[in-house]
Design goal:
Rossmann fold, single chain
Length: 677
């Protein structure tokens, strides 16, 4: 295989200034890898490895350093000096990442490339020179081989090349013959004129015909401009050198996702789906295939004092091709508008921009920062900690709608999860959500929080569903809204509609709540389908405790108590409650599943002495024990407390023995639910 002359020249430019490898030793080895500079090839155990041009050039440059530090400035001068409109800092980081991927190297324990923080890189592996392989053409190209065709041939040659490699070579040979045979000059000029005219006709046909452009791409080796219709924004790397700034990197990632969805026609993958790749070293084409996208946006952000530096680059995922890069430097006081600005730029470059909405009102940077901290903690399930930051955001800027929406999220989640009593959360949550909508009627999250607040506080299904539909109208790809609508529909016994709504939510955000679709089947009492779905999802997310929770409940409803207890143990193990695991196992061995339920009753009673415990949680346990009076008494208490957990009691067969009891039916009617049985 002949080398590309550009590769040869580039390799010489990299190697000769340092003079670390004599020309005779243009093949070297390290570990079980071999680099053949003549072939511009990296291989391992005789198998060629794919490494793009820039990373390959950088690998050669670092190896040429022979253990010496190669500064980032040197790298830029050698590899990027003549290239413009490229964010070289991010380009270096990307090239290093790709080198480490192909070398299977952990940056925390480097075997080959050592990062010298703030300065550059050092190649630390021993290098051995090797004789070049005798296969292929390893010699320098001769002057004759490097001569370029004249301008006329440059036009005609692509058309001739389309026919076959043999014809292409014939054209090249004919050119060389013409140059050395004066008697053929007249015929050569005629042939050249005809070829040029023919090329012009073909190129004109290509210009006006989309089909011809596609044929040209296939037969002439031309590549059409990359088209990207779907995009995943990978979590921005936190380069601040301070782990406490992770909330800032994640928050800016969230806002970039939101702004891209709002300012473009692109299908943008949700936050939950991309966050699983935070800190993960996997090839971008592989990530893109998993997420079902053709574009990847990756980058980094660093905050130092009052300065913020963000770099992002756009990758065409199938070919792992760099399309565009940009860096942004801002003062901390001017960071709020950055995600919107970057999203608009990307949308325009991909010809997917939508008409711009009016500029949002001024946002206090400190309020914005507090909101980002609150969201970071809320997504981590630390609702109590998130409250202080959401509250601070609203205090710093009372007209900041996301801050109020965040507060409503805190109150709603705390009520449904039973971390706080309804008296502490329901009214405050509705007030916060109402305030958010009043401040910004175009904010989908605000309408969803109002939907949830009306649902659990007012038990007004009609108004709640209206707000949910409004959130979807504002953002048709808002998976969270479809998920909550599935809850509303299940409450109203519209189970098939609930399943379809959850299917839509799962389709839009397949990595959010892996248990959710199985739970919709569970609420519809389609237990076999629920098991099938949960077990399938467990294969890809084995450490999701909520999947074991839904499996535990489903097996229990099917009367498969041994399997139910096993899933309960797995759930507690993933929650790192080993003491409870041992108790549950012993309880089942000594008295079967009902003995496990009795332990759960005792455990909740103990917890109620130091924290809020919903009476409806206790009622479900007593229902499983068949204790009618205790169950009804606790359900009545739950009604007086306005417990949101009452909304799903008809979906659990543990309560079936009460369906004919007028006291039970009275509770259901007072809640406002249609009787299911």
């Amino acid at each position: 295989m002949k080398r590309d002359q550009t590769d040869v020249a580039k390799t010489d430019a990299i190697l000769h200034p340092r003079g670390c490898f004599p020309v005779a030793f243009r093949v070297f080895e390290f570990g079980d890898f071999k680099v053949d500079c003549n072939r511009f090839e990296l291989s391992r155990a005789g198998r060629a490895l794919k490494l793009e041009r820039k990373p390959m050039e950088l690998l050669i440059l670092l190896a040429a350093g022979n253990g010496h530090l190669v500064t980032r400035t040197e790298i830029i001068e050698r590899l990027w000096d003549s290239e413009v409109f490229v964010d070289t800092e991010h380009g270096i980081n990307t090239a290093i990442r790709k080198i480490r991927q192909v070398l299977d190297e952990d940056p925390e324990r480097p075997r080959f490339i050592q990062t010298v923080t703030g300065k550059g890189y050092r190649f630390i592996a021993p290098i051995a020179t090797a004789e070049p392989s005798l296969s292929g053409d390893q010699s320098q190209l001769s002057p004759t081989e490097t001569n370029l065709l004249d301008i006329g041939d440059a036009v005609a040659y692509p058309v001739l090349a389309a026919a076959s490699p043999t014809q292409s070579q014939t054209a090249h040979d004919a050119t060389q013959h013409r140059e050395t045979t004066p008697g053929n000059a007249h015929n050569s000029r005629l042939i050249l004129w005809l070829a040029t005219f023919g090329a012009a006709v073909v190129l004109a046909f290509i210009a006006i015909s989309p089909a011809a452009r596609g044929l040209a791409a296939r037969f002439l080796g031309l590549s059409a401009r990359p088209q990207i219709s779907s995009l995943a924004v990978l979590p921005l790397d936190n380069l601040s050198g301070d782990p406490s700034q992770d909330y800032f990197a994640d928050g800016m990632t969230d806002e970039l996702i939101t702004m891209l969805a709002k300012n473009s026609t692109l299908r943008v993958v949700s936050r939950t789906s991309v966050m699983q790749y935070k800190g993960v070293r996997r090839p971008l084409p592989e990530i893109a295939r998993a997420l079902g996208v053709d574009g990847i946006l990756e980058g980094s952000i660093a905050r130092s004092g009052e300065k913020v530096h963000m770099t992002i680059q756009l990758i065409q995922a199938p070919s792992d091709t760099h399309l565009w890069a940009e860096s942004y430097d801002r003062d901390a006081s001017d960071i709020v508008s950055l995600p919107r600005e970057a999203a608009q730029t990307i949308a325009k470059r991909l010809n997917s921009a939508v008409p711009q909405a009016p500029l949002p009102r001024y946002v206090n940077p400190e309020a914005h920062d507090a909101y980002l901290r609150g969201r970071y903690l809320w997504y981590a399930g630390q609702y109590a900690k998130s409250f202080g930051y959401f509250k601070k955001a609203t205090e710093l800027q009372p007209d900041y709608a996301p801050g109020w929406s965040g507060l409503a999220m805190y109150y709603g989640a705390s009520a449904i999860d039973g971390q706080k009593s309804p008296a502490e959360t329901l009214e405050a949550g509705e007030e916060a959500a109402t305030k958010a909508v009043q401040l910004d009627d175009t904010l989908p999250e605000a309408h969803l929080t109002l939907c949830a607040a009306i649902y659990i506080n007012r038990w007004d299904w009609t108004r709640s569903d209206q707000e949910c539909k409004r959130a979807i109208e504002l953002d048709p790809e808002f998976a969270e809204a479809y998920h909550f609508r599935a809850k509303i529909l299940a409450t109203l016994n519209r189970n098939q509609e609930a399943i379809e709504a959850q299917k839509k939510a799962t389709e839009l955000d397949p990595f959010a709540r892996p248990f959710a679709l199985a739970y919709s089947y569970f609420l519809a009492r389609q237990y076999d389908v629920a098991l099938t779905d949960a077990l399938q999802r467990q294969e890809s997310t084995p450490n999701d405790w909520a999947l074991h929770w839904i499996l535990y409940r489903t097996y229990r409803c099917k009367g498969m108590y041994k399997e139910a207890t096993s899933e309960l143990e797995k759930m507690l193990t993933l929650q790192r409650d080993e003491a409870s695991v041992a108790i549950v196992r012993r309880a089942f061995q000594q008295g079967g599943y009902k003995n496990v339920v009795r332990w759960q009753v005792d455990d909740l009673k103990k917890k109620s002495t130091s924290q809020y415990v919903s009476p409806v949680d206790l009622s479900l346990l007593y229902a499983q024990l068949g204790d009618r009076e205790k169950t009804l008494s606790l359900l009545e208490q739950g009604y007086r407390e306005h417990s949101p957990l009452l909304l799903w009691v008809q979906n659990d067969p543990a309560y079936d023995f009460l369906h004919s009891d007028e006291r039970y039916r009275s509770i259901i009617k007072r809640v406002g639910l249609p009787l299911a049985y």
